[in-house]
Structure formats: C-alpha cells, structure tokens
Amino acid sequence: MTFKPGDKVRVKDSELDSYKTEFQRKIKGRVGVINSVEHGDWKYHDRPFVIFPAEGRKKEYRAGQINARNLELIELGSN
Asked: 5-31: string of b/e by CB count within 10 Å (b at 16+)?
C-alpha cells in the first residue's frame, strides 16, 4: 500500500514485537499521521515518516521512518 501525507495509520499489532520495548510503549495503540514518504524501488520499500500527535498524557512522538508493510491505514488524509 502506498501512503500519502496526511493519512492516519497505526502500526500493526502483529508487527509490534519486532520493535524494541521502549518504541513499543510509545506507539502501541496510537494513531499516527504520515508527514512525508520516501519512495523506494518497490511498493514495500516506501518509508513513511510518521508523527504520533500528543494524546492524553503522552507527548507528541516523531517516530521517523517506519516500514510501510508494518502499517495499517486508519483514515485517508484530506489531501
């Protein structure tokens, strides 16, 4: 799947275990927004830059590049 800036995404629960515990705590269950996308040669080589907005007591978290196949689309951006 190709993501566009403004799309709302979440890291798939099935992929969370592949990340470090600290990163898991920061992103688990949160919905992030695609800031920009670095395109690769193949559709799964796309590396979206994801920002998780502040939510409750959690601060904004700029996760940086996350592999596109580890993300699930929650809502299309308004672009």
From this structure: eebbbbbeeeeeeebeeeeeeebeebe
Residue 32: give the domain boundaries: 8-75
Q: Is residue 2 part of a domain?
A: no
Pairing, β 71-75 against β 61-65: unpaired
Q: How many domains does the chain have?
A: 1
pLDDT interval class at 40 (50, 70, 90): low
Q: Which residues contact 8 (CB under 8 A, 6 or more apart)?
A: 31, 32, 33, 34, 73, 74, 75, 76, 77
